[in-house]
Amino acid sequence: MAGEAIVVLDGQARITAFGAACELLLGWTAGDVLGRPFAMLFAGEDAGILLAAVGSRDAVARHRNGADVPIRMDLATVGTGAAGPRVAVLRARLTGAADVVRPAASDAMGPVIAHELSQPLTATALYLRAAESLVGAAEPAAALIGKARREAERAGGIIRGLRRFAANRPPETRPVPFDATVDEAVDLAMAGRDPQPVILRERGQHPLTVVADPAQLQQIVVNIVRNGIEAAEDRPNPRLWITTRRDGDTVVLAVRDSGPGMPAEVRAGLFAPFRTSKPAGLGLGLALSRSLAERHGGSITIDPGGAGQGATVSLVLPLAVPGEPRAVQRSP
């Protein structure tokens, strides 16, 4: 549990101290909140009501990732003045405790896990590179070793991107060919699937380019495509329609599945971390993908489908070169 999270306020209800337990409970750092109104920590509650009286009350705080955090708040004044400094002690309520603790724990553990994984992945890629040089390009195993090395390097790139994400640093971006990245991500998402769904691919006639962190962009697309595959895999003749196109000064990836559509109860928690309808799922794929897309100035939207229509997940990102032609060509 995050324990007692202590927030100190001045006479104008601005935050003057924000402890480590607060960071664990709510995801914000002290640098994010110091000097800002206390009400920023809550889900649409009026600061006057929050601070109207000392004592205990139930409230709903707002985690940095947007999730609601049910809490118990104890408020006390410092000194004798009614408008003087105050101390608020926040505790996670037991109801919905898993929804509170797991996102907070992931925020704390993510950088540690990323750090621990980065070194063995780097070593794996180096060993595979050495193995490539030993077997020679003509050996049958060389292609497989090269593919394994590239996957290890890709995983290392994802870990580096996640470390930057956890540290709240902007992604390392460069111009990236959008269609080629999508095609490679589709191949990765399909790897090991048996049976594999039919992929119906539609793309623009002219190249589309985005400015992105290549590993993060690929991870976003892999997560979206896997989500579609899993939605359709229990249906007869599973299919995915994957379209890339230009829309004004943005590029759009739309992935539509042949599944039954997305029920309302699934949509409600679709982007909330650790909420999943899949028995073996962690509930992190689309939540992480949306956060990464927003870091790139983009967004992810859902058309839930239903009534015989599968769901469509769309990724929208800024176009790198606004002057490109817009014609669309269907692939056979």
Overview of this structure, please?
There is one protein chain. With 332 residues, this protein is of the alpha+beta class. It folds into 3 domains: 5-95, PAS domain (Beta-Lactamase); 101-166; 174-330, Histidine kinase-like ATPase, C-terminal domain (Heat Shock Protein 90, 2-Layer Sandwich). The chain has helices at residues 20-26, 30-33, 47-50, 97-135, 140-166, 178-190, 214-232, 264-268, 285-295; strands spanning 5-9, 15-18, 55-62, 68-77, 86-92, 174-177, 198-204, 209-212, 239-247, 250-257, 299-303, 312-318, 328-330. Helix 4 packs antiparallel against helix 5. It is globular and about 80 Å long. 30% of the residues are buried.
Going across the major beta sheet, what is the strand order?
A: 11-12-10-9-7-13
- The succession of helices and strands, N to C, reads EEHHHEEEHHEHEEHEEHHEEE
Work out the radius of gyration. Answer: 24 Å
Examine the coordinates and then state which fold CATH places here, giving the name of the CATH topology of the largest domain.
Answer: Heat Shock Protein 90
Instruction: Give the fraction of residues assigned to helices.
Output: 25-40%
Q: Looking at this structure, what is the CATH superfamily of the largest domain?
A: Histidine kinase-like ATPase, C-terminal domain
CATH architecture annotation of the largest domain: 2-Layer Sandwich
Spans where pLDDT lies below 50 across 5 or more residues: 95-109, 279-284, 323-332
Largest sheet: 6 strands, mixed
In the CATH scheme, the class of the largest domain would be Alpha Beta
Which outline best applies? globular
Beta strands, count = 13
Overall mean confidence score, pLDDT: 75
In terms of quaternary structure, the protein is single chain
User: Which structural category fits the helices and strands?
Assistant: alpha+beta
Number of helices: 9
Percentage of residues in DSSP E strands: 15-25%
Q: Give the terminus-to-terminus CA distance.
A: 55 Å
Number of domains: 3
